[in-house]
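queue> pop job 88
queue> type: inverse folding (structure -> sequence)
queue> payload:
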């Protein structure tokens, strides 16, 4: 379906879609968003600006078998690598939303999957220790292994075999994200 068609239906009369339009400013006092030459009024504003994979400066991060996971192309490259090299084990670096999504995808591919989170709990920006306990239980029930307070030192390997220096995994995937909000935040007016 064409972009924006779902939002433009009669079932959502108060929703207007601007595909490809750049929000250039946000005035929270006036409750308006600058969008091109137009000021758009709002009652509630949600910044859903997307994200991109953050790859920490870990030695070996550019080796074969180390991937980012964000797009379908990323997943297809990982699947092709898995098939070509008989990969059985994966480590996902990052236990946030994107990392857990990546870990589930690795698990669904039949890989023994480890989630390596730098923080002491999963999804440390969204939940507290109690939430972590409940979430970790559900994730482990799926068959994934969780390692919090994990520090990845390096990727090592030769002959198309990448080993994570911590666990001896066959393939690694970065599942951390950094949000595209800093540029917009610099243009937000507040009281």
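queue> result:
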């Amino acid at each position: 379906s064409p972009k924006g068609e779902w939002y433009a239906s009669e079932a959502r009369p108060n929703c207007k879609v601007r595909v490809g339009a750049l929000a250039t400013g946000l005035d929270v006092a006036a409750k308006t968003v600058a969008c091109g030459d137009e000021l758009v009024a709002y009652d509630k504003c949600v910044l859903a600006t997307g994200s991109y994979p953050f790859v920490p400066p870990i030695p070996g991060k550019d080796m074969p078998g180390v991937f980012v996971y964000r797009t379908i192309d990323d997943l297809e490259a990982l699947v092709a690598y898995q098939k070509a090299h008989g990969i059985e084990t994966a480590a996902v670096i990052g236990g946030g939303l994107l990392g857990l999504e990546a870990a589930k995808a690795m698990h669904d591919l039949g890989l023994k999957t480890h989630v390596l989170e730098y923080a002491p709990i999963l999804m440390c920006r969204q939940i507290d220790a109690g939430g972590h306990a409940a979430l970790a239980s559900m994730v482990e029930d799926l068959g994934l292994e969780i390692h919090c307070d994990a520090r990845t030192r390096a990727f090592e390997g030769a002959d198309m075999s990448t080993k994570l220096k911590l666990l001896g995994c066959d393939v690694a995937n970065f599942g951390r994200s950094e949000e595209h909000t800093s540029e917009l935040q610099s243009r937000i007016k507040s009281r």
